[in-house]
Specification:
The complex is a heterodimer of chains A (268) and B (177). Chain A contains nine helices and eight strands. The radius of gyration of chain A is 19 Å and the shape is globular. With 268 residues, chain A is an alpha/beta fold. Chain B contains four helices and eleven strands. Chain B has a nine-stranded mixed beta sheet. In chain B, a hairpin with a 4-residue loop joins strand 10 and strand 11. The radius of gyration of chain B is 15 Å and the shape is globular.
Chain lengths: 268, 177
């Protein structure tokens, strides 16, 4: 184990090598994704497949880890900010930076062992999870929102969901529902920018990275772990999502085990 | 062509190991067959996604002076039929067995003589699939893979067990035979 990893040696002798072998995809490099990039690079991950087609704007500077005023002025691509952050910590890292939607360059994403989904929409989550299931990839999703409560005060919430092939999916867990997807589709083009703040992004991203490290290192030695954690920003709590404790089917019906690989069209 | 990565879920991996770990009346090693799909990715490393396991029934083993035990033709024919039924869908078949030690396994002399002759039959049944031999140890694994159209094997670069916990078994250059 290297001197650099000495303070995280409890993760096990094999962890440093496992993190170096692991290929991580991060879709969305905004408030959540930029935290995840930074933490994974600190930990020792070496192989990154990144997706984001946006550039840094002034309104991003409240939460985009690694971005500077100069980046906003120069409209630096978010993938370049992330790449700079990674290579500053891991000069030998392999970074494939895709300045596009992930669907436009999906073959690289198939090779990942983890995908972190940091997207704003339920349909975006649904597409990424379906993709991850097809290629037997562990998918970790983060999301947050701020709504107005009945008393007129802001209500900050979010969740971290771990979707593993062969286990309950985000539909099983009640995160993705037809109602949510259809409401979102009806409001298409009228959603506007969702509220985001750096500390909530940081909590969700840290929780997601912690789950990924546990998946890879098994340092907790748990037999099972909740698949969904819920964040209550007003109470400052992270706890198992209520759907994560109840009514979870043991076997996922949404993604049958043998429906993997790239679909093939055949003549009937 | 790059050697593929082999993927299977933790649940399937556990099921396979539990089956192979059972003692048999006279066979020193149990074997089974894994099935899945081949994913070509252009210039990128291809994937083999294994999703189903077919154990070999106790009565399909027969004693052999040369190998200790052999599996009967019924098991091979069932495997070939499974491939034929899914012909044209990049279906893959892997012969799997366990070596009871820690660290990266390797092909024994008996494995080298007895197992590769299975592959041409698999290739005939499913020519667009990737077929091979998978050996699991207590904490590692290694796979010899025949990509579509290849008559010689390559060693899979990695074996990836997805799920909780996940594991990545990279191929190291000097296997312990």
């Amino acid at each position: 184990m290297s001197e650099r990893s000495s303070r995280q040696s409890f993760l096990g002798e094999q962890f440093e090598q496992a993190a170096a072998e692991c290929i991580v995809g991060i879709v969305g490099l905004g408030g959540g994704g930029s935290h995840i990039v930074q933490q994974l690079a600190h930990i020792g991950f070496q192989n990154f497949i990144l997706y984001d087609g946006d550039v840094v704007e002034e309104s991003n500077l409240t939460r985009l880890v690694g971005a500077t005023n100069a980046d906003a002025l120069a409209a630096t691509k978010k993938i370049d900010v992330a790449k700079r952050l990674i290579l500053g910590l891991q000069p030998g890292a392999s970074v494939t930076a895709n300045d596009c939607r992930w669907q436009s360059s999906a073959e690289a994403l198939m090779g990942c062992h983890f995908i972190f989904g940091c997207v704003d929409t339920f349909s975006g989550r649904s597409e990424l999870e379906a993709f991850a299931r097809r290629y037997l990839i562990s998918y970790i999703d983060i999301g947050m929102d701020v709504t107005i409560g009945t008393d007129g005060r802001p209500v900050m919430g979010g969740q971290v969901t771990v979707s593993l092939p062969g286990q309950p999916c985000m539909r099983c867990l009640g995160i993705l529902t037809e109602k949510r997807l259809s409401e979102e589709a009806l409001a298409y083009g009228d959603v506007g920018g969702r509220p985001q703040v750096v500390w909530a992004n940081g909590i969700l991203a840290s929780t997601a990275v912690g789950r990924a490290v546990d998946l890879l290192s098994d340092w907790t030695g748990r037999d099972t772990a909740p698949l969904c954690l819920s964040f209550d920003g007003n109470r400052e709590e992270v706890k198992p999502h209520w759907m994560g404790r109840n009514r979870i089917p043991v076997i996922c019906d949404h993604y049958p085990a043998d429906q993997v690989g790239t679909p093939i069209f055949t003549n009937l | 062509m790059l050697a593929p990565e082999i993927r299977l879920t933790r649940g399937l991996y556990t099921k396979v190991k539990a089956d192979l770990d059972r003692p048999h009346e006279f066979a020193h090693e149990r074997v089974g067959f894994l099935f899945g799909k081949y994913v070509a990715r252009g210039e990128l490393q291809p994937l083999v996604l294994l999703t189903r396991y077919q154990p070999v029934a106790d009565e399909h083993y027969s004693p052999s002076e040369e190998f200790g035990a052999l599996i009967g033709s019924d098991s091979i024919l069932t495997t070939m039929q499974e491939l034929r039924n899914r012909r044209g869908s990049r279906e893959c078949a892997f012969h799997v067995h366990m070596h009871l030690h820690k660290g990266q396994p390797g092909l024994s002399r008996a494995d080298r003589r007895g197992l590769p002759p299975l592959i041409p039959s698999f290739q005939r049944m499913s020519p667009d699939g990737c077929h091979g031999l998978l050996i699991l140890s207590e904490d590692h694994g290694l796979a010899w893979t025949w990509s579509p159209g290849n008559s010689t094997p390559e060693i899979a670069r990695t074996i990836f067990i997805t799920g909780y916990p996940m594991a990545i078994y990279p191929h190291k250059e000097t296997p312990n035979v």
